[in-house]
Structure prediction request, 349 residues.
Amino acid sequence: MFRYIVFPICLLLVGIMTTSAYAKEGGSHAPGVGKIGGDHWADRITVSGLLEAEYGQTSVDGGASESDIVLATVELAFEAKLNDKVSTHLSFLYEEGDTTYEVDEGYIAYNMGGFTIKMGQMYVPFGSYETNVISDPLTLEIGETRDSALMLEGEAGSLQYAAYLFNGVTLKTGSEEAVDKMGLRLAFVKEGMDIGVDYISNIADTATVSSNVTSTPAIQTEVSGMVLHANLTFGSLHVIFENLTSDKFDAADLSFKGNGAELSATNMEVGYDFNMGGMESTFAVAMQTTEEASGLGLPESRMLIALSMKLQKDTALSFEYATSSDYSIADGGTGADSTSITAQLAVGF
Prediction:
């Protein structure tokens, strides 16, 4: 794993040292060599990253308590603006126990003036998934979708829009591989307000659903999905609402109590910014629910309380307490409740 982490870092350091050597020696480049748009390539690259280390403890009713320390997230991203029209994005992601170090996103963006075309591997705009707590919202657990896609996006004043095409990881029985899945986003965005609706033609292609349908990659029917979101800010108060729904699955693909499942998930959250001992802080309370999602291994409800504090520039310490209730045994769950405590130290650059 570490060789995949070291390679992009070494590549960056070589570029920086090369730039420094040329500057010190007063050297010049041959026309078009080592330059992009007349400047050295290193001047056009922006590097960013995120590290999150967490302590977690979980206990289940009637069961033992477990705890662990993990490197929850390592993210390294490179943005390159080649010229006024073309830019690229490349990011790597590692999540201990979940994601081996890999290319998370990689795409080319071409600015056409009134809109932008993107092509490559990306997270398509299906869901907003904003939160002020540590844990991912249950809406994200169901809806997050990464695939190689062709996307058109743009804005007209406060109105933002996107449309995309992709192949997907599932394949309807009797069909051939084809770029025949699509999605749409329409949102009204201005200061303190983000209200939008997203549509995807086959929610079976999301990361969680595709991993749990009975016979991936073959499915009996394609099932559309929709997400409504509203993220509002009133001074120090933040209000988040998001609701994800799907049409009905074929029972052979994903079932609930013997019938085809109709998935639903909701996240309702309130956060408040304040100053605590000179540190910028946020207190948040969230209530999350799902319906007919026992086949995905998700709880029926979850209540979360979180506190985050900005210790230094780009450094935050966060705490979270969560209680979850699983589906009953009759509904395909365990019927058990669980509690978890999480402490996270995060650094972004």
Remarks:
- The radius of gyration is 23 Å.
- Residues 1-38 have pLDDT under 50 and may be disordered.
- Residues 2-25 form the longest helix (24 residues).
- The chain has two domains: 1-49+69-111, 126-349.
